[in-house]
Amino acid sequence: MSERLVAEAFVELADTLVDEFDVVDFLHQVTVRCAQLLDVAAAGVLLTDQRGALRVVAASTEETRLLELLQQQTDQGPCPECFHTGRPIAIADLATVTDRWPRFVAAARSAGFASVHALPMRLRTDVIGALNLFDTRPGALTDDTIRLGQALADVATIGLLQARAIRERETLAEQLQTALTSRVIIEQAKGVIAERRQLDMDQSFTLLRGTARTTNRRLSELARAVVDGSETV
Amino acid sequence: MNETRRGRIWTQIGRRSLGTPVTVAHVCAAAVPGVGVDGAGVTVMVSTTVRDTVHATDRVAGELEEWQLTFGQGPCVDAFAEDGPVLIIDLDAPIHLARWPVFTPAALRSGARAVFALPLQVGAIRLGVLDLYRARPGPLSDDQLADALAFADAAGMLLLEGAGGEPPDSAELAWQRDDPTSHHAEVHQATGMILAQLGISAEAAFARLRAYAYANDRRLGNVAADVVGRRLRFDDNRGEEGERS
Description:
Distance between the termini of chain A: 37 Å
Structural class of chain B: alpha+beta
Number of strands of chain B: 7
Number of helices of chain A: 9
Largest sheet of chain B: 5 strands, antiparallel
Shape of chain A: globular
Helix content of chain B: 40-55%
Largest sheet of chain A: 5 strands, antiparallel
Mean pLDDT of chain A: 91
Strand order of the largest sheet of chain A: 2-1-5-4-3
Largest interface: A-B, 41 and 41 residues
Helix content of chain A: 40-55%
Oligomer: heterodimer
Order of helices and strands of chain A: HHEEHHEHEEHHHH
Radius of gyration of chain A: 17 Å
C-alpha cells in the first residue's frame, strides 16, 4: 500500500476530530479507510453495550448483509472473543472454524467472505469494542497490515473519547451509550428515507450522510430531525 | 444484553410486583438494592416539552426530580437532551456547580452526593430518564453500571408498553423481554419505514411493529426484515397490515 494514502487517511481522520464532530460518522470513515488501506472487502466496528454484549456502531458499507453479519456477533464469534480476551483474532480460512462458531461462519461464508480478522479497541486497561475485517479471499493479513489495522482501531477509540473531553471513566461510559443511541437513530432515519425515496438502506445512508456533509450538520442531529419529521432528506 | 443479567434483573423486579402488573415503581424499588444506591426516581416525558415525575422511592429522590423539573437543569435534563447517561460521582466537585448552578446546591442540600441519570429511549424515541442517587460520593462499579443500564432497559420497556396509560400486558411484556432479535438494525429501520408509511410518530410506529409481531407470534426481527425487504406494508387500505402477494 502507498505511504501517501496512509498519511492522507490519518490526516483526514485527525481533521475530523474537531469540535462538534459526529462519532458515528467518524467511525464510518474509519471503517471505509480500513477497507481501503488494509485491502479487505469490508470493515465494521462493534462496541460494548456495557451490559455484556456487543452492538454494531459503524460499517464500511450499510448493506444489510454486512450489518447482519456484524450484529450476529452480539455474544458469539471472532469479535466477542477478541473483546473478551483483548487479543487480535485472525481466521485465515473460515472453513477451518465451522465448529467454533457454526452460525457466524455459515452466515459469513454465504455472504461471500473467506477470512476474518478482529482487532481490539482498547483504552488503558479497558477493552471497549472491536474492529472487524472481512475479506473474500482466504489468508492471514501480514504483520505490517495488522499493525496498520491496529493503528486505525486506536484512532477509532481516540475519536470515541474525543467527542467529549474524557476526564474520567464515567465519561467513557456516557460516550459509549451515546454512540450506540446515535446508531439507532441513524437506523430509524434510514428507514424513513428508504420508504419515502424508495431506496435501499445503503443508498439511504449515503444520502443522509451526504446531506449532513453538504449542509454542515452532524449526522446524528440530521437523523433525529428526519425521524421527528422536522426535516426531510 | 447478557441473557443471565436480564433474567436476574426481571426476577428482582418480579419480587417487588408480587404477581401484580409490573410498574415503574417496582423497577425503582428493585433498582435501589439491585444496583446499590440509596434511591431511584423516574421522570417521564408526557410530550416533547412536558415532563412528569412518575415515581420516586424516597424524599431525596423525589426532590431531585422536583429540582430538575422546576429549574430545568440537572443530570436528568442533560441525559435527556444529550441522548446518553450522565454519571456524577461527586456532585460537590466545583465543575458541577458551574454546570448546574441552581440544581447542584439544592440537590446537595437534599442529601444527594452521587447522581446517575440514565435515559430511557430507543433511538429517537425518548421516553424519560431513570435517576439513581447515593448520599455518599463514589462511582458505580462496571457490574453496577451494567445492572443500572439493565434496570433502565426494563423501565423503558414498561413505558413503551404502557404509553396509553394502561398497565402493560404482562404476557406481551414477557414475550418481548425474551426476544433476542429486538436489537437488530432492521427493527429500527422498519420503525422508520412504518413511520413514513403511516405518517405517525416513531413511538407509534414502533408500537405497531411490536403489536403485529405479538399478534402473529413472530420474532420482532423477522417481521422487521419483512418490512425492510418490502414484503410487508402497514398502510394497506384493508385496515389491517397485509402481506404483499
